[in-house]
Design goal:
Blueprint (H helix, E strand, L loop, with lengths): L10 H28 L3 H32 L4 H11 L1 H14 L4 H26 L3 H8 L24 H30 L13 H30 L4 H27 L11 H27 L3 H4 L8 H9 L2 H10 L11 H8 L20 H12 L7
């Protein structure tokens, strides 16, 4: 189990950021709905919204890039920091995507679909980050064996039996419950694009004859299950996670996901009851999509500020161990072979050979207990896997792992 390090505490700040976001959401939604009534020219209103959204998006990207750079500069805990950096990328991806969706409203359905897929990926990365905080899957399973049964959170504790968190299958169920959203989201995205091509999907249209209502309901059920499993996992491990202050991190991620989803649902309802209607050459659906993207641009600035505190790099900068060179750290962050392997294992999907992945090699070489490196490579030829060969050569040579 890794030695706890002091984590930044931001509950008060996150609360203020959430309140500010809620006010911005209400104000901007009311403004979007009132544009025709107050006689503001449609073109001028769109230009103003692009400028405002662009300023907030740029600030969000700059703040997030600074946080990401600092983690790369102090890349001493790859098992933790690869997950943190992937989470931090959520803000610039959301901000840039939302601004382009606002600028090119006709392509918004495709751009927003790609953005939403990344949020599902981030949710699983946060789960894995929590697992790594408590020492990894093997250590966690061993720890939970001695734990007593746990109640469901209110109000489900009145109708559901206690959870046997000591059962060997508890971890697997939580993992699959979170992963199902990660896997289902791209499938829903593909179905959405097909529906758009067939003319049976209008973003924000709650008409039962269209596809938006059903896609949204399935999406909502899936993300609710995923978040509920994440809450159950936290409840089971909150004592082990306490030194790492996971609540502020969870609030940052949950706020982004829930704000973007539920405010979109509310805006769609305003379209349905004719509060939001056509503006110039924009249909009511275009206005709803534009309002959603405009709000996300503003919210991402707040999220970027909160992420700098919740996912601070200070504890890693103070470590005395070696750092991974930037080129290899970058490859480690963007390699998802380990996640693919986790998914196959969670759902008992058979894959190819079990070669050591790049991430596993890096983790072993930067183990926090600094034991002598003992790597065992399979006899199978990794084929054209350049990442594998380069990682093996780097770690066997041992000359590239140096302080920056």
């Amino acid at each position: 189990m890794p030695t706890p390090h002091a984590m930044s505490s931001v509950p008060a700040y996150v609360a203020r950021a959430a309140a500010a976001t809620a006010n911005a959401t209400a104000t901007a939604t009311a403004t979007a709905a009132a544009l025709p009534a107050v006689g503001v020219e449609a073109d001028q209103a769109r230009n103003d919204s692009l400028i405002i959204a662009g300023v907030f998006s740029l600030l969000a990207v700059l703040l997030s890039t600074w946080g990401i750079y600092r983690h790369f500069r102090a890349y001493r805990r790859p098992d933790l920091q690869r997950r943190i950096i992937r989470i931090l990328f959520m803000v610039p991806i959301y901000a840039i995507d939302s601004w382009f969706s606002l600028r090119f409203i006709g392509a918004a359905i495709y751009l927003d679909t790609a953005r939403d897929c990344y949020e599902a990926f981030v949710l699983y990365q946060f789960f894995v980050l929590l697992v790594q905080f408590v020492g990894g899957e093997a250590q966690l399973r061993h720890t939970l064996i001695s734990y007593p049964p746990m109640d469901h959170p209110w109000p489900f504790n009145y109708c559901l039996p206690k959870i046997m968190i000591s059962h060997p299958r508890f971890f697997g169920k939580m993992q699959r419950g979170i992963l199902q959203f990660t896997l289902l989201k791209p499938v829903l995205a593909a179905i959405k694009i097909i529906m758009v091509a067939c003319g049976v999907y209008d973003d924000g249209d709650l008409n039962p004859k269209g596809g938006y209502l059903y896609i949204s309901l399935i999406d909502n059920v899936s993300i609710s299950i995923s978040l509920y499993c994440l809450v159950l996992f936290y409840m089971a491990t909150k004592e082990e996670l306490k030194p790492y202050r996971p609540v502020s991190k969870f609030i940052c991620i949950k706020a982004v996901i829930f704000f973007s989803f539920w405010q979109g649902f509310i805006i769609a309802g305003l379209v349905r009851i004719k509060v939001i209607h056509d503006v110039g050459d924009w249909t009511s659906e275009n206005v709803a999509t534009g309002a959603q993207d405009f709000l996300i641009c503003i919210e991402m600035f707040l999220a970027a500020v909160a992420h700098l505190y919740a996912f601070s790099s200070k504890e890693y900068e103070s470590m005395m161990s070696s750092t991974l060179p930037f080129r290899h750290a970058l490859r480690d962050v963007f390699s998802i072979r380990e996640d693919v392997g986790d998914t196959r294992a969670a759902f008992n999907i058979r894959g190819g050979g079990k070669n050591t992945t790049y991430a596993q090699l890096v983790d072993e070489s930067f183990a926090v207990d600094e034991r002598p490196l003992e790597l065992e490579f399979t006899d199978e030829d990794p084929g054209d896997d350049d990442d594998y060969r380069e990682a093996k050569a780097m770690l066997e040579g041992g000359s590239d792992a140096r302080p920056l």
